[in-house]
UniProtKB/TrEMBL annotation:
Protein name: SCP2 sterol transfer family protein
Gene3D superfamilies from the UniProt entry: SCP2 sterol-binding domain
GO CC list: cytosol
InterPro entries membership: SCP2_sterol-bd_dom, SCP2_sterol-bd_dom_sf
PANTHER family per UniProt: SCP2 STEROL-BINDING DOMAIN-CONTAINING PROTEIN 1, STEROL CARRIER PROTEIN 2 SCP-2 FAMILY PROTEIN
Pfam families given in the database record: SCP2
Length: 237
């Protein structure tokens, strides 16, 4: 196990060199801000690179303390827990945050991938909660309860509830299945975040069989309003 931040990035460098396909699969530039020192992991240009310092524009920024970063990289710290405790801050493309675990696969298996993606899902639903709080009329306009069944990279299914039904004003977002859902949407974690960030269109995901919907289809058509304040032209169903 790496005992320093520098050693972790040395291992990431080896993983990037050993797997040229990472650039094609990830397609983004990360900036890691660790104890005030920035590292750049470029998986967007050429064969990919890892550099000390801020190089170019980041598509995804991760801010974390050194000890927490080492714990995260080794699998001792859960990414979702770190995010909820304020130890891990994410900025930019959440879809890229979900792919972060691929950098650590050779070192610590699939656990970091699951942690990073879970953190991205938390970010997504936190943003939805902010949008609901900023637009109290959503309850009257939508009048329904959504259940999201999101399949993680590990194969586990994470359930979330978005309650925008009359009588529950101002609406709420919670982890876990609601008592009764009017519309249920099931999809993989990566497709979920890509849909919210505009990288994937909900209608296309549905036609490809990547998004499954049951219940009130009219509510599915209104889902874009939930993220309209954040991604007014991107989230579509």
């Amino acid at each position: 196990m790496a005992s320093s931040v520098d050693q972790v990035f040395e291992l990431i460098t080896k993983n990037v060199a050993a797997d040229p396909g990472l650039v094609k699969r990830v397609g983004g530039v990360y900036h890691f801000d660790i104890d005030g020192k920035v590292w750049t992991v470029d998986l967007k240009n050429g064969n990919g690179s890892v550099k000390s310092g801020k190089d170019g524009k980041a598509d995804c920024t991760i801010t974390i303390k050194g000890d927490d970063f080492l714990s995260l990289a080794s699998g001792k710290l859960n990414g979702q827990t770190a995010f909820m405790q304020g130890k891990l801050k994410l900025g930019g493309n959440m879809g890229l945050a979900m792919k972060l675990g691929q950098l650590f696969e050779n070192k610590s298996g699939a656990a970091p991938q699951q942690q990073a993606s879970s953190g991205a899902i938390e970010v997504a639903f936190n943003e939805i909660q902010k949008n609901i709080s900023a637009d109290l009329s959503l309850v009257n306009k939508i009048n329904g309860v959504y259940q999201f069944d999101i399949t993680l990279a590990s194969g586990d299914v994470q359930k979330w509830a978005v309650d925008l039904k009359t009588g529950t004003s101002p609406g709420s977002v919670s982890k876990g299945a609601p008592p009764k859902a009017d519309c249920t949407l099931a999809l993989k974690e990566e497709d979920f975040v890509n849909m919210l960030t505009g990288k994937a269109d909900g209608q296309s995901l549905f036609m490809q069989g990547k998004l499954k919907m049951t219940g009130n289809m009219g509510l599915a058509m209104k889902l874009g309003q939930v993220v309209a304040n954040k991604q007014p032209k991107q989230a579509k169903l």
